[in-house]
Amino acid sequence: MPEPLISAPADLERSPVVANNTMNRERGLTGVNSYARELGLNPVDHLAGRPAPAWLDLCSGEGRALREAAARLPADATLTGIDLVGPLPPRPVPPTVEEVTGSVWPWTPSRAYDLITCVHGLHYVGDQLGLLARAAGWLAAEGLLVAHFDPASIRHADGTPAARPALAALRAAGFAYSARHHRLSLRGGRRIALPLQYVGADPAAGPHYTGQPAVASHYR
Fold this sequence. Notes:
The protein is built from six helices and ten strands, in the order αααβαβββαββαββββ. By secondary structure, the protein is an alpha/beta fold. The model has no long low-confidence stretch (mean pLDDT 94).
């Protein structure tokens, strides 16, 4: 018999699959293992020329990419990273970088962002669609959100695949999806209400497309 779904974020975050200290730890800004390669854009180039540019990185790991970007962006930039584990060990950060160690639930930023990224982080979030809807509201009017997303990890409450209705709802809300790169993107901040109700997550769902263990998110 399958294990019951976990609905409370705090319980899910204590599961071995989610409470890890290896995901996205050392990924830098550019190069082979980098944000530029994974996202298909260099965050610094995207933010260049904007007044007081702001970047929010969800599931930011060690925050290496943010630190590297800080050296190339103006002093009035805002670079925010939030991660369940955070840097290990904590270290001094540039004045433009804010590191938040904790859950994305119920964290809410105090400002809008020109760029929001989530590099392979949604694979470990219970309510993936809920986080995407919230993040859409954190974007500036001309901002960009880019996140890796595995439609196969979205299930109906009974465990059957829900990739098609999930993608249809996301596209209707304005998201674009690249199946080749497993990336969702959204341009322009907005309020989003998706017609799928989260019922819980399964941290024992097995590996996703990268081969790493991941969470399956269930909706009705």
